[in-house]
Amino acid sequence: MVPDATTVPPGNRRTLIVGDVHGCLDELQALLSACSVDWSADRVLLVGDLVAKGPDSQGVVQFARERKLEAVLGNHDAKVLTLAPWAGPLEPTAKTPKHHGKVARTLGLDDWVYLRRLPLYLALPELGTVVVHAGLIAGLPLEQQPRDLMINMRSITPEGQASKRVDAGQPWASLWLGPSHVVFGHDAIRGLQQHPFATGLDTGCVYGRSLTALVLPERRLVSVPARRAYVPI
User: Fold this and answer.
1) What are the tens digits of pLDDT across the range 88-122?
2) Which of 95, 106, 109, 182 is the most buried (most CB within 10 A)?
3) Are 146 and 233 in contact (CB under 8 A)?
């Protein structure tokens, strides 16, 4: 009998945290294969932005829900959710990027339910780790963190304010002092970030670079190359 994940000894169970997938299903599957995922034991988490820009957003969501992958909400996931069937007629506004409307038209009910249930963060106390899509504000409890910043922030300005812009100041993660180690995505321009208390995993797969996973508890990084650049950065 093959043991399920709940019966595997804790010391033999790994947690794999995967950077921004953006509809790159082939690369996601290749990365998990490169990590030699044990589906009976390992836990796989995605840092958000499962959808948009890449070639197969619906396929990524379907794969994630069928394989019972965990994930946090990304800004592109949130934008697609504004077009959900329960939000009204599927009529993207002038401010809605075309790729979000295109993704929305491919999703089935089970896909919508999976996306709707994504939390803003996942706390992994046994690993001293928190997973969030974009960033956290130092000194605020997780439950008080602003939703907009958790899915959009990139920098801290010289005045100490959180910003969505990559050119507004220092990477927020370089100033994060713990105690939890934060694993995040969202910042493809900066790419892989390795700070004392934070690791950024958006290595720009959809832009033609790579898809990266952090394997815990050994803190090993594994990457696979993108098959091509699907959109310009």
Assistant:
1) 655 555 455 678 999 999 999 999 999 999 999 99
2) 182
3) no
